[in-house]
Amino acid sequence: MNAITYRNPFEYFKDLDRFMVGADDVWNRLSRHQNQNMTGFPPYNTRKVGDNSYVVEIAATGFSPENINITVEENKLVVKGSISQTDKEEGSTYLYKGIATRDFVRTFVLDDHLEVVGAEMNNGLLCIRVEREIPPEKMPKQIVVNGPSTSKPQLLNEG
Fold it and tell me: Residue 87: is its pLDDT beyond 60?
């Protein structure tokens, strides 16, 4: 049998920054957070729902909106869930406990110009809406290429 070896996915892209101007900052931010979400709890989905719209869905069963704290800081979306001991039903005796209600922190790196526009809790699923809002000065602009000029170019040292 062949052994399967797993490599860090960032190794495949280590030379990509040579071809992308300014990508070093993006790769540095991603590499700082690559191991932060390795716990697997709670599970989540990221969906693209439009050209510039995304939804992050986090399975937060057992959490109420008061137990969830969402912040955006330095291009990071940080979602924290915490349930107090009184909310965890300390006096209950479980025969089997398969629904985890432990505290969690999930961090997502946001691309430039992504803004969190809202969040809602529905049937144990926390849905965070994110949209790309590109400022007008950052939008692509068309540059007109003019034909040859009929006037003689003026040199800087000419009067």
Answer: no
